[in-house]
Structure to design on (868 residues):
């Protein structure tokens, strides 16, 4: 083959560029300590890296959620434990006053003590974690317990801010339900009352009755004695589609919260109900069916009245109350265990993900260092050769 | 130079022989000098001096040649390799320009090192989780709004960048068409001059070199075929058969923007039938492919993502209740469905008032709906319900990475072929200094010998004159 100066020059320069680009490639990987610096370095690994990072970010969030749940549950548990202690104390006091040696004076004094316990219990049951009440269910902006018993009531009807309807809506009726509920009405077809339709919900809007009902007449019976009455000023004030009206109905007793679970996601597809509602722990809705505040108040009344039969009667309830609280305490323990298990699973997963990420992304430094010195040698020889092209030509031999 | 002589031997005719030898060798040295001078001229083909013996003398029944002349100056080249180079230039330039365009898109979409849209999407999901933990929290609501806005800003800016690439391509295509027309114009002029020179039996070697070089340059822009005409000119045709140049008649390409903001390329005379589909090689082919296939593909990925995200989030969001116990409004808005990724935004009502975020499934102020919204990250919404929003984005990054990697390999491959062909061409047509030096020595010896001949003839004449004295 005929070889010209240009061929020699081009070959040398091309090889030099190739070697330099390989050298740079190794340097980039060494400096970034990453095998994949851009998607085209290894498209499959790049996809994997992004997916792993997404899983890790999700895990991070699950951990945060678990921490939040844990602190909530721990607070709940400690409050319940204090409540249990109060009940033990009340029980001891009641036992002492149930015997024949007790008299009206001692019972009067004990009644004062019981009142102190009731106050303490109320304050425990109204504890907050952050700005949310521990025991009020999903109504966590409302203090769940009142110190005095409330009769069944239907609160004033409320309207959503964006409602089109400017007429009046009033609530009425006597609440016959046994638990606290929020009744909601959603307008499904707007217009004057005569034309409008609605659906209603007895759980604050989570689920709806499913069929459109006519609003004609303006008086809507939502069940359990709850009635909402609309006045559209003789058809001049129209209802808008999606207008929301709701009303809280409170059953007789001390509790004002609801019995709804509050959940957080603690793993992919797993949610944890982290609250214990006041209803479960302190009211007759609980598993032992004891209304703790009622029991304590009955005890206090019996003591004040020097009613030894009444005192004895509440002893049984006090024991059930202790069981009810301790059951909920153990429920907290179960939940904390659940979190521990999930957390250890998650950190195992995290370790695996970190290893996988490293495998996909991290550079093998030892290998790179070896390759770097190889490329350096290659580069040096390329330079040595480049400096020599043109040295050997016939011109050297002509004078 | 050519000169017919048929004479008897005489001393004076020897002087003519010496004169011819001197001038022929001088010309050969001139040509060698030209080769040496052009050792670095791109596209230069070395030239060779062909000598021819002339003038015959009859000696006892035989004839012998007693003179020399330069018959012609040959341009040493291999037309097959030359045409291969022109064809290969079309492939090499195409793959280089395609690689560059793809790399621009890769830089934009790549998220391998983090900090991009994937992280923002993760933060968006986290913000929902945090809100579900504190549904009434102003801080959590505001954090969610900014997570949503960051995500949308990323999508919008990706789309803007893709639009910019589209605009760049319009400029590139318009430049390319201008270049092509200029080069065709140049080849037309060369055709004309070659035709005239060939007609006059003149020297067209330099012009041919220039034309070959111009064809190679044309090959870097567009794919075409060329054919030699008997008069020394060439015709150039595009891949679809439309003529760019027929002898000395050129046909300009023209370009105009169509209604969707892309370049339509037309060949001479037509303004109705764009020929974009026919252009698959050269830089123009690459620009064309980037603008009409690659950029629209990634735009459609972004659009699909934006629509799926907005649809599902809105669906769940509007099933919940905001802090004012209103039914949830749409969380995302897409004012222009034909440009979903460019126009998607957080509902202005929510941006103005974070209490409009519907965190609850009921009017009691729970955070259940936020939980449901965060769980959308695990829903298979993309690729006919086979992948999540996150993994869809990851596959898009994988896809551009793959395209770039393939284009890199292809570009390396095409460059290697080109280097090989250039070496072959160089081997045939390139100037070798060593060779030229040896030729120089040879021609110098010939020249010196002819000079010595002159001297001998002169002495012979002196001797002859001495006889007469």
């Amino acid at each position: 083959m005929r070889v010209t100066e240009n061929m020699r020059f081009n070959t040398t320069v091309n090889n030099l560029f190739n070697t330099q680009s390989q050298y740079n490639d190794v340097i980039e990987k060494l400096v970034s300590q990453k095998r994949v610096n851009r998607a085209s370095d290894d498209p499959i690994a790049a996809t994997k890296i992004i997916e792993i990072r997404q899983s890790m970010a999700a895990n991070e969030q699950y951990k945060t959620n678990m921490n939040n749940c844990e602190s909530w549950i721990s607070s709940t548990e400690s409050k319940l434990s204090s409540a249990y202690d109060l009940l033990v104390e009340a029980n001891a006091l009641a036992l002492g006053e149930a015997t024949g040696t007790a008299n009206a004076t001692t019972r009067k004094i004990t009644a004062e003590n019981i009142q102190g316990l009731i106050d303490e219990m109320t304050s425990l049951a109204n504890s907050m974690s952050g700005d949310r009440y521990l025991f009020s269910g999903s109504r966590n902006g409302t203090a769940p317990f009142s110190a005095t018993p409330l009769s069944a009531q239907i609160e004033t009807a409320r309207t959503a801010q964006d409602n089109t309807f400017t007429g009046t809506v009033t609530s009425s009726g006597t609440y016959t339900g046994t638990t606290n509920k929020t009744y909601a009405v959603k307008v499904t077809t707007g217009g004057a009352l005569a034309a409008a339709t609605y659906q209603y919900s007895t759980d604050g809007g989570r689920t709806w009755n499913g069929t459109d009902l006519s609003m004609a007449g303006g008086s809507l019976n939502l069940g359990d004695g709850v009635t909402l009455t609309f006045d559209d000023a003789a058809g001049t004030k129209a209802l808008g589609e999606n207008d929301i009206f709701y009303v809280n109905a409170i059953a007789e007793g001390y509790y004002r919260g609801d019995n709804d679970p509050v959940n957080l996601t603690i793993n992919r597809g797993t949610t944890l109900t982290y609250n214990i509602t006041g209803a479960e722990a302190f009211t007759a809705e609980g598993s032992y069916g004891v209304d703790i505040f009622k029991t304590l108040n009955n005890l206090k009344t019996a003591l004040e009245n020097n009613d030894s039969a009444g005192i004895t009667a509440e002893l049984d309830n006090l024991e059930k109350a202790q069981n009810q609280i301790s059951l909920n305490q153990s429920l907290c323990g179960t939940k904390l265990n659940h979190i521990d298990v999930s957390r250890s699973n998650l950190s195992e997963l995290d370790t695996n993900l970190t290893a996988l990420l490293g495998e996909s992304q991290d550079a093998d430094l030892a290998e790179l260092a070896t390759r770097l010195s190889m490329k350096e040698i290659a580069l040096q020889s390329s330079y040595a050769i480049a400096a020599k092209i043109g040295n050997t030509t016939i011109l050297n031999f002509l004078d | 130079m050519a000169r017919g002589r048929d004479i008897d031997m005489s001393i004076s005719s020897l002087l003519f022989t010496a004169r011819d030898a001197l001038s022929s060798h001088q010309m050969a040295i001139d040509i060698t000098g030209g080769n040496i001078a052009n050792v670095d001229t791109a596209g230069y083909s070395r030239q060779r001096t062909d000598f021819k013996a002339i003038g015959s003398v009859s000696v006892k029944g035989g004839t012998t040649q007693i003179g020399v002349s330069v018959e012609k100056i040959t341009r040493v080249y291999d037309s097959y390799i030359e045409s291969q180079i022109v064809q290969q230039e079309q492939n090499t330039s195409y793959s280089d320009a395609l690689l560059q365009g793809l790399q621009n898109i890769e830089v934009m979409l790549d998220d391998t090192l983090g900090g991009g849209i994937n992280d923002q999407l993760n933060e968006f999901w986290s913000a929902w989780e945090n809100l579900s933990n504190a549904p009434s929290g102003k801080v959590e609501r505001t954090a969610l709004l900014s997570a949503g806005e960051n995500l949308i800003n990323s999508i919008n800016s990706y789309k803007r960048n893709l639009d910019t690439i589209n605009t760049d391509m319009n400029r590139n295509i318009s430049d390319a068409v201008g270049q092509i027309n200029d080069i065709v114009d140049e080849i037309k002029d060369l055709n004309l001059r070659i035709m005239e020179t060939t007609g006059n039996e003149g020297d067209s070697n330099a012009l041919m070199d220039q034309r070959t070089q111009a064809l190679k340059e044309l090959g870097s822009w567009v794919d075409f075929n060329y054919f030699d005409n008997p008069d020394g000119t060439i015709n150039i045709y595009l891949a679809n058969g439309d003529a760019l140049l027929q002898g000395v008649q050129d046909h300009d390409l023209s370009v105009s923007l169509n209604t969707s903001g892309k370049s339509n390329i037309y060949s001479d005379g037509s303004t109705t039938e764009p020929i974009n589909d026919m252009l698959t090689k050269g830089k123009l082919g690459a620009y064309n492919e980037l603008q009409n296939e690659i950029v629209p593909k990634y735009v459609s990925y972004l659009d699909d993502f934006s629509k799926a995200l907005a649809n599902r989030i809105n669906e769940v969001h509007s099933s919940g209740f905001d802090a004012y116990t209103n039914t949830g409004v749409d969380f995302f808005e897409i004012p222009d469905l034909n440009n979903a990724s460019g126009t998607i935004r957080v509902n202005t009502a929510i941006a103005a008032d974070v209490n409009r975020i519907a965190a609850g499934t009921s009017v009691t102020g729970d955070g259940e709906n936020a939980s449901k919204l965060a769980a959308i990250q695990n829903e298979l919404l993309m690729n006919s319900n086979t992948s999540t929003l996150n993994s869809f984005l990851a596959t898009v990054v994988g896809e551009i990475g793959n395209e770039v990697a393939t284009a890199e390999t292809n570009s390396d491959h095409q460059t290697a072929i080109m280097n090989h062909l250039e070496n072959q061409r160089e081997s045939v047509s390139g100037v070798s200094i060593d060779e030229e030096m040896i030729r120089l020595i040879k021609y110098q010896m010939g020249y010196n010998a002819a000079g010595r001949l002159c001297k001998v003839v002169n002495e012979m004449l002196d001797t002859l004159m001495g006889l007469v004295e």
User: Anything to note?
Assistant: Helices of chain A lie at 5-32, 43-98, 104-125, 278-282, 292-304, 308-361, 365-388. DSSP finds seven helices and 15 strands in chain A. Chain A touches chain B through 72 residues (CB under 8 Å).
